[in-house]
């Protein structure tokens, strides 16, 4: 009897003996065929052709009945519906994260008596005893010292506040790291390197699961509130991708196709940035430039729609209470002058230097964590870093406030009503206008404190990024740049003030005009540092001007970001995310790198000249037992099928997982399949003798169009084929005979050897 496994078990029991009873005809494929193991790479070509077949089937059916037509319409609509759901869910989660983080951050310093769920700002809004000068002091808000000791001034009160600040910080970070360790180890870090890897076709099961989502949302709030030097922006991308992955399970189209799901995840990355900064267009460009691997136009439109919905949802939750979407809105709109491009470029150079330096230091530290005993005590490490951070950050008001508060303070331009120390200028007699302002003592104190805060932030961020808590990198990098920018801005302002007669100042800084805006320098510095660390360009400019509302400052931002990218690229080729991908050994074929070596396919393929021959299956004549023996003896993820061992002419390629599942299925479902049963990969099985056991037909799982290159193909072309088509393996032939195989892993190992790195650091099978 013939057993045909191309469609489950369409088989005849006891085939030719005359009664010919037809067994249950099942028309669906064997469950599990066509799926992937954990830590494997998907085959984009196969997934896309699977989706094309599905689509073709639906469209051809849609002409036959109204029901099928409705099905085809709903299928076309499901992508947009999914985007709507992702936008709503991510926006809602981001709003909750913002509100709770704000509240917990203020809890470190005191409590609101009129309702403990109010944060400091909301508590004093409702109060009618608030004056404008002291808008953050009101009787309803009590610091811990007032609550516990009764007095708000003096050394004792300072110590009580100090201790409570440290205790809260330690408690929050302890909770965060314990939750991550116990429930979702994948929730730590920023998540962007892993998401880049997943989008390039790798599978990490559970990385975007529901536990990761729940734990990441809770621990992100705790980690941000603990005062550690980290932001919530990177992890919000991970949170949005988790939402997308979970919602994908509602639609069969996305549940069953890995390539389609990755298109949705690209859009989700855009949603993450959109809700993190309130920058929907910046988010779409971020996904396009930084995270995505395969980004067709359709995904661009869908990301645009999803980012719009998410920004809308966040805006209706209104987490900042000022009905603005953006994080750091700036009010100043003074024009800038051509001469100022010099300091802007200097900021760009600083940003590039700091970016390259930070990547080196952070990667060295993370490598130490991986290789020494430091990695065995994640909880202790987080507690020590939090303790040191809290201990050093409390005395300085610029480090005590959260990162985003610090940045908005630095971006702010001084108006008459500002109570900030940075705005303590000596006002002249007619104090209703603000012409040239000589700096008062407050400004100098603030500059000293900012300089200390700068060193502190630089050192602490290197150690913090990569710990076992959710940690983003955007806010700390921007804080470093904003501090440097503000310092330079104040210096420029005072120089212009004290030297009116200098040639460079003379033309545009007439006496009595307010000509230099220190807040603008802070903005440019922040963008330059973030650009140096992540190597974003276009998306960063758009995020920055959406973030601040400063449309007239696009050119200064572009100049600084471009300079910073050039300087950083000169010192080190890769951004922080690529560096972390390489440190963790993820199989990621970088699309930006050129392959410059003069090797051929035969130098990279396995088996090498000295190795034993390639393990192949023949299209006829092998028994079930022999194939199972081959599977047991090797750990390859697939086998080429040839006409015969002598001719080695190629027929197709069969994946190990499909083979194992199909053979198991044949043994379970069919009578008489034993180890001696023959296996055929042919279309028409030749007539068999009556006496023998039934044969197994596996034509259905054979890939008849494997990609092949000849042994003299230059590797540069082969690498290009792998990148652009998203291949997983490629067969090598010589004069039409099968010689060997190249997998994505071989290419990555080869590239690692070529650049003198350890080729065994690459993780996947």
UniProtKB/TrEMBL annotation:
Keywords (alphabetical) are: Antiport, ATP-binding, CBS domain, Cell membrane, Chloride, Endosome, Golgi apparatus, Ion transport, Membrane, Nucleotide-binding, Repeat, Transmembrane, Transmembrane helix, Transport, Ubl conjugation
Q: What is its main location?
A: membrane
Q: Quote the SMART domains the UniProt record gives.
A: CBS
Q: Write down what this protein is called.
A: Chloride channel protein
- Mode of membrane association: Multi-pass membrane protein
Q: Belongs to which family?
A: Belongs to the chloride channel (TC 2.A.49) family. ClC-5/CLCN5 subfamily.
What reaction does this catalyse? Answer: 2 chloride(in) + H(+)(out) = 2 chloride(out) + H(+)(in)
Lineage, top ranks: Eukaryota, Metazoa, Chordata, Craniata, Vertebrata
Residue intervals of the CBS domain: 605-669, 701-759
From what organism does this protein derive? Oncorhynchus tshawytscha
GO annotation, cellular component aspect: early endosome; endosome membrane; Golgi membrane; plasma membrane; synaptic vesicle
Report the function annotation for this chain. Answer: Proton-coupled chloride transporter. Functions as antiport system and exchanges chloride ions against protons. Important for normal acidification of the endosome lumen. May play an important role in renal tubular function. The CLC channel family contains both chloride channels and proton-coupled anion transporters that exchange chloride or another anion for protons. The absence of conserved gating glutamate residues is typical for family members that function as channels.
